[in-house]
Amino acid sequence: LATSYQNASYFRFCVATERNPNEEGNLDPPTTTTLTASASTGKYGIPIRTTLDNSTTVQYAGLLHQLTMKARSTVRDIDPQNDLTFLRIRSKKHEIMVAPDKEYMLIVIQNPSE
Fold first, then answer.
1. Which of 90, 95, 100, 105 has the fewest beta carbons under 10 Å from its own?
2. 62, 40, 107, 73 alpha-carbon torsion, rounded to 10°
3. What is the pLDDT of residues 73-93, one digit of tens each?
4. Domain count, the chain
5. How far apart are CA 93 and CA 4, in angstroms?
């Protein structure tokens, strides 16, 4: 997993999402969503790679690092043997997905309406 974070530049700016069955039960073609930005951070929320400007990257990385650590703590309080593997936040403007690991954290921001 850490290797994929180090190679964050391989992420494409167009990802396929789930396919839904139509009225006949056949699967519709996959829809696409445009990525707005991606970033990878180190263990303490310090940005390593990003497609955003510096100030926006620092803001997202810092706030999402804090939120992810609180979410991880909450998951461990419920079950000490469990760990947070993925965090997804969706609003009208953005969808933020965070994949935390021991040494890295991958952040993807996309526009859900496109």
1. 90
2. -60
3. 999 999 999 999 999 999 988
4. 1
5. 27
